[in-house]
Design brief:
Rossmann fold; five-stranded parallel β-sheet; binds adenosine-5'-triphosphate; binds magnesium ion
Length: 489
């Protein structure tokens, strides 16, 4: 028989649970109204589940959560909260609460499901379900603590109707995470609609979000529904929200406060239930401080904040991402050699997962038909540091190349270049690393161009011979020729 402890000083809530749970014969229910009573009851009993109000006369739900988990780690804890304290309930989830429910309880069926789920024996389904879902939606988690915590929290809040703000540098996977949350939510069978607030003019964005009536402005030849209407039962992903103009920010705030909006050119209020997930690569609190973003809007969006750590802070996840992208492109055909894997893990990835994905696509293209094992030779030079070069290939033809690459001239040149670039940034407080990487790529490009031209000149344009001279395959030469003038990754 499952032992359930209800902790709330409100009699009505106690009666409600008494009634709700008495319908199930195999539950044994206990009540506590204060922190002191909880102490007494856990001294002699252990529970499978505790449903705890955040506000108690002599303490708060978070303290009770800590005590319960300390005394009996297996006890599941659901926090009860009012709308105004949802943020604290989310803090409780970060601290180990298993779920939260909002008072008043509008959806009894959902509440019963939550309780049943907590009491279900922990066979695989409990643990594997979220991981399977992540896999299905193409969201790689890896093993870093940062991503694990982020994933657990994202999964727990996915089914709640709270707004979510995702922050993270460019390419960290904000959209991938938003899609995962949508798939893990009860809205999964309704649309997930994304709009980039930075990519459209203010007028276009407004008509995109709210729709317009026929004739509302020149060119509005048809009535058009807005995204708030189309995504009403689903999720509206407001990407790069930090770029929304002040006037759009005011309009968004109004919708988030009232859940209503008007089409451009109409006075009629339309209701929307869209769940908002916003994303930004800039820190919005900082933008508020600088007067560029409305604090009240941030407060509405940031009910749950999920910050995706940059890839350089979770390098242990890199092999999982590599395998994911390799598999996606080639099935299980290609693998990375040890040295290539090491080079990937040494690099700092200013463009995060997107850059990593591009590097893999490039390597797969180069390796196509040549090899099943991607070595460091197939990676951009910016990834392979000079100390890794002597190990790069055991091929006899390459011995000349290796000697050249580790020659004193080259080492001296690289040293000078490094000193020079560090000197340029010495006096600056913030180092613009992406620019530095861009400069490095340019250097790489210049070297490519110079050698490819030299070889073609000397072989009178014979590509076969030129590629032999450069110790690369004709395919690689073709690739370099196509890449001419473009960035390199
Ligand atoms: N955890 C992840 N698992 C699998 N793929 C990922 C992950 N994170 C990022 N990616 C991949 O990296 C690329 C960039 O991801 P996404 O567009 O979600 O990033 P973003 O943070 O929205 O970037 P931006 O700020 O530039 O818009 C995509 O190709 C995506 O598939
Ligand atoms: Mg994005």
């Amino acid at each position: 028989m499952a032992r359930i402890l209800i902790v709330d000083d409100d009699n009505e809530v106690q009666n409600f649970f008494s009634y709700l749970l008495s319908r199930k014969k195999d539950f044994h229910i206990f009540f506590a109204s204060t922190g002191e009573e909880v102490h007494t009851s856990i001294a002699s009993e252990s529970y499978q589940l505790a449903i705890v109000d955040l506000k108690l006369p002599d303490t708060n739900g978070i303290e009770i959560l800590k005590i319960l988990k300390q005394k009996n780690p297996a006890c599941k804890v659901i926090i009860m909260t009012g709308y105004s304290t949802v943020k604290s309930a989310l803090d409780a989830i970060r601290l180990g609460a298993d779920d939260y429910i909002e008072k008043p309880f509008d959806d009894i069926g959902e509440l019963e499901k939550t309780i049943d789920k907590m009491l279900a024996p922990e066979i695989n389904s409990e643990q594997d379900e979220p991981v399977d879902l992540a896999e299905q939606t193409g969201f790689v988690i890896g093993t870093s603590i940062g991503m694990r915590n982020l994933f657990t929290l994202a999964y727990k809040i996915a089914r709640k109707n709270v707004n979510v703000l995702i922050e993270g540098e460019t390419g960290t996977g904000k959209e991938v995470l938003a899609r995962f949350i949508h798939q893990a939510s009860l809205r999964l069978n309704h649309p997930f609609i994304g709009v980039n607030c930075g990519a459209l003019t203010e007028t276009l964005l407004e008509s995109e979000l709210f729709g317009h009536e026929k004739g509302a402005f020149t060119g509005a030849t048809q009535l058009r529904k807005g995204l708030f209407e189309i995504a009403s039962k689903g999720t509206l992903f407001l990407d790069e929200i930090g770029d929304a103009s002040p006037s759009i920010q005011v309009k968004l705030l109004r919708v988030l406060e009232t859940r209503e909006f008007m089409r451009v050119g109409s006075e009629k209020h339309i209701h929307t239930d869209a769940r908002i997930i916003a994303a930004s690569h800039i820190n919005l609190s900082e933008a508020v401080r600088l007067g560029k973003f409305r604090e009240d809007l941030l407060y509405r969006l940031d009910v749950v904040k999920l910050h995706i750590p940059p890839l350089r802070q979770r390098k242990e996840d890199i092999p999982y991402l590599i395998n994911h992208f390799l598999k996606r492109h080639t099935g299980n055909e290609l693998t990375f050699s040890q040295d290539a894997m090491e080079a990937m893990q040494r690099y700092e990835w200013p463009g995060n997962v997107r850059e990593l994905s591009n590097v893999i696509t490039r390597a797969i293209t180069l390796a196509d038909g040549e090899t099943k094992i991607i070595t460091a030779d197939y990676l951009p030079l910016s990834l392979t540091k000079s100390d890794a070069l002597p190990h790069r290939s055991s091929n006899a033809q390459n011995s000349e190349k290796i000697e050249l690459q580790s020659s004193p001239h080259l080492d001296q040149f690289l040293d000078d270049w490094k000193e020079n670039i560090i000197f340029q940034w010495n006096s600056k407080h913030i180092i613009d690393y992406p620019t530095i990487v861009e400069q490095t790529s340019k250097l790489e490009q210049v070297v490519h161009d110079a050698f490819v031209k030299k070889a073609l000149r000397e072989t009178f344009g014979n590509r076969q011979e030129a590629s032999r001279m450069l110790n690369i395959s004709p395919r690689t030469l073709r690739y370099l020729l196509n890449e001419k003038g473009k960035g390199h990754t």
